[in-house]
Amino acid sequence: MHKCLVVIAASEEERFFWSHYIPKEQIGSGASASVISAVRVEDNSLVAIKIMDRAKVPYTTENINDGSLFQSVPKEVLALSQVAQDVSGAIELLDWAESQDKVFLVMELPQSSMDLRQYLNTKCGAVPELKDMMTQLISTVLEMKERNVLHRDLKLENILLEEESGNLKLIDFGLTSKFPSLDWTSRVRMGEEFNTF
User: Fold this and answer.
1) How is domain 12-193 classified at the CATH fold level?
2) Fewer C-beta within 10 Å: the chain N or C terminus?
3) How confident is the model at residue 7 (pLDDT cuts 50, 70, 90)?
């Protein structure tokens, strides 16, 4: 039996945001964020909402509208926006909002899914589908590279497996950075270039 999740909206912006979603239960948490499942009021679809302390969220200033306007957005929002349309192996960002204290990312919530660590822990011995999973993961990472997005936090807990389809979804783009515009494959010290070491 799941417990009901109570969310206290501290500001007018948060009350407005929560008027569009009905919180269900916490499904994940990390050092600087928690993730809950919720129902979107507009269409009764189940979504995941990542709630972050705004003071800990890295922002970037990005050029929008063909360079005529600049907007400061969370780096994770920018990364998810860059991969959302074309990279099927990346979780889809549906919406985002911010209040004075919090940033909310609304993402798809794949049904009947678990992270890859949970899945592998349920298996004993060989995992014949592992080759297909790794092919999917490598394909997703290469597609993201084509869009200048480097995930930087690939681990079993950040890979969701949709049990029925066998499809993988990469989640948690909080440490994402951009590939430099130059030909990165020619760089010898790639880890140093991207601050990954």
Assistant:
1) Transferase(Phosphotransferase); domain 1 (1.10.510)
2) N
3) low
